[in-house]
């Protein structure tokens, strides 16, 4: 999703025309005697307070210090790195009027992979992600902290700057405001999760197909004619993935005429449910890509010399999309847990709880509990944050998006779904072992053999936590998708 962003960042160190043009407009505005929000006035509810020329630089430094009041666990380092890149991207488009010195040091942070420590809580999502972006910008003036290389320790910013021979900047008029206005926290969480969701959706289709084979379900609901007359593109893609993975299946062929009329919904309706989530996430990706390439500062500096206050910092488009994405991902986990439950019930010759000797062994009973717990937690997390708003800044900011909350809980939902799918992986592959010597479809067989190279069949109760950790690692790596793609073609 953000390949274009990375390409753009490579160009920023040499492409300075837009930056210089917008900065010149800000400097000229300081001489015309007029009031410009955040440049020579106070902020938010203090917008009517005019600031003297002698205090303009102190105004910008005070802005960072006063707004850096975030709390909670730090934003993951990888997401903060993306947050920094996104801020550079929007500033580099030349509508913010930031000084070249400030921009250059921020760019140097990205080049040296110096990633600031940013608390995850404290933003209302308008005027953008003020507190998180203030923390991200603090090291410019030798405050705050950077992560160490491993992302484990927090190092004082001043010491890190000195180590790299970097000199803190003196913020100029408009600099602080340009740094903290924007939706970069929301964007970073959303882009990070949505990018990873692309492969997770393919894994969900693969797991559903594995469970279908293990439960000797019917392939009839995946007939392309059924999908085409409903016309939702995602539904057709999912059904196509299942058919591809089931090629050469001896298991399906063995019970083609078994007389079973219909499977439970968690098998039969995989194209409809997975497909709906695909459609929702495709919309969210479109919104996010638009936002990634937008300018969300305030006020904005235009080429003709106009400096206009607006509301591009408001996170509503991103907040709505991330709430929607959380719901879409949660449903992938919801239906996965139902398939896990089916696998444990002992259908069609499978041993109950997927072990031959239960009583002394609990089998895979309790991993399903974990899956159910995570599904339930996701239902709570999917309450949309974007429907809430609390007025702030003495009433000046009377409607906010709460998009930062949408962002942080989206990550939690995504991680929960990873765990839920990892449990279906364990149970589906375990169940498939009991169908031997019949072979599954070629795609499922590749997947089965890959998993068994890393996780053994469980004959009796064991320390399943280790199995779950290995399974989660396989889900996150997704190397089995590449193996399947090499032999059968890429999944849609």
From TrEMBL:
Q: What is its EC number?
A: 4.3.1.3
Against PROSITE patterns, the record matches this protein to: PAL_HISTIDASE
Catalytic reaction(s) noted:
L-histidine = trans-urocanate + NH4(+)
Q: What class of enzyme is it?
A: lyase
MF annotations from Gene Ontology: histidine ammonia-lyase activity
- Main localization is cytoplasm
Coiled-coil positions:
none
Keyword annotations for this protein, in alphabetical order, are: Histidine metabolism, Lyase
Entry protein name: Histidine ammonia-lyase
Q: Which GO terms describe its cellular component?
A: cytoplasm
**Transport among the record's keywords?**
no
Return the similarity comment. Belongs to the PAL/histidase family.
* Pfam families in UniProt: Lyase_aromatic
Task: Give yes or no: UniProt keyword Nucleotide-binding.
Answer: no
Which pathway does UniProt place it in? Amino-acid degradation; L-histidine degradation into L-glutamate; N-formimidoyl-L-glutamate from L-histidine: step 1/3
GO BP: any one term: L-histidine catabolic process to glutamate and formate
What species is given as this protein's source? Cyclonatronum proteinivorum
Compartment(s): Cytoplasm
């Amino acid at each position: 999703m953000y390949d274009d962003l990375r390409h753009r960042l490579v160009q920023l160190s040499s492409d300075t025309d837009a930056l210089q043009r917008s900065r010149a407009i800000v400097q000229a505005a300081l001489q015309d005697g007029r009031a410009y929000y955040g440049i020579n006035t106070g902020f938010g509810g203090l917008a009517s307070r005019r600031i003297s020329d002698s205090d303009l630089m102190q105004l910008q430094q005070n802005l960072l210090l006063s707004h850096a009041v975030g709390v909670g666990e730090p934003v993951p380092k990888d997401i903060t790195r993306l947050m920094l890149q996104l801020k550079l991207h929007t500033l580099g488009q030349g509508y913010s009027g930031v000084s070249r010195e400030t921009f250059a040091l921020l760019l140097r942070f990205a080049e040296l992979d110096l990633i600031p420590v940013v608390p995850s809580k404290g933003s209302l999502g308008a005027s953008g992600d003020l507190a998180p972006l203030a923390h991200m910008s603090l090291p410019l003036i030798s405050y705050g902290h950077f992560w160490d290389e491993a992302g484990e320790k927090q190092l004082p910013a001043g010491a890190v700057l000195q180590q790299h021979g970097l000199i803190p900047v003196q913020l100029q008029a408009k600099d602080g405001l340009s740094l903290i206005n924007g939706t970069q926290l929301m964007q970073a969480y959303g882009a990070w999760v949505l990018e990873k969701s692309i492969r997770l959706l393919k894994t969900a289709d693969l797991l559903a197909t594995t469970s279908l084979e293990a439960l000797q379900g019917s392939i009839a609901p995946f007939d392309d004619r059924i999908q085409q007359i409903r016309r939702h593109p995602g539904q057709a893609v999912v059904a196509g993935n299942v058919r591809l993975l089931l090629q050469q299946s001896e298991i399906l062929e063995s019970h083609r005429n078994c007389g079973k009329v219909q499977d439970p919904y968690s098998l039969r309706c995989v194209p409809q449910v997975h497909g709906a989530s695909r459609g929702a996430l495709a919309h969210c990706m479109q919104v996010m890509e638009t936002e990634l390439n937008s300018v969300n500062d305030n006020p904005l500096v235009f080429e003709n010399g106009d400096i206009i206050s607006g509301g591009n910092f408001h996170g509503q488009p991103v907040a709505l999309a991330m709430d929607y994405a959380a719901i879409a991902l949660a449903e992938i986990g919801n239906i996965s847990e139902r398939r896990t439950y089916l696998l444990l019930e002992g259908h069609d010759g499978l041993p109950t709880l997927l072990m031959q000797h239960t009583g002394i062994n609990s089998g895979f009973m309790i991993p399903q509990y974990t899956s159910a717990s995570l599904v339930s937690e996701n239902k709570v997390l999917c309450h949309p944050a974007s429907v809430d708003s609390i007025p702030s800044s003495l009433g000046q900011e009377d409607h906010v998006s709460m998009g930062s909350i949408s962002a942080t809980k989206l990550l939690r939902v995504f991680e929960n779904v990873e765990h839920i799918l990892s449990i279906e992986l364990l149970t589906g592959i375990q169940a498939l072992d009991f169908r031997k010597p019949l072979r599954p479809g070629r795609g499922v067989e590749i997947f089965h053999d890959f998993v068994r190279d890393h996780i053994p069949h469980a004959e009796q109760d064991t320390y399943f936590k280790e199995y779950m950790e290995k399974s989660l690692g396989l889900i996150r790596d997704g190397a089995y998708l590449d193996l399947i793609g090499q032999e059968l073609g890429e999944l849609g």
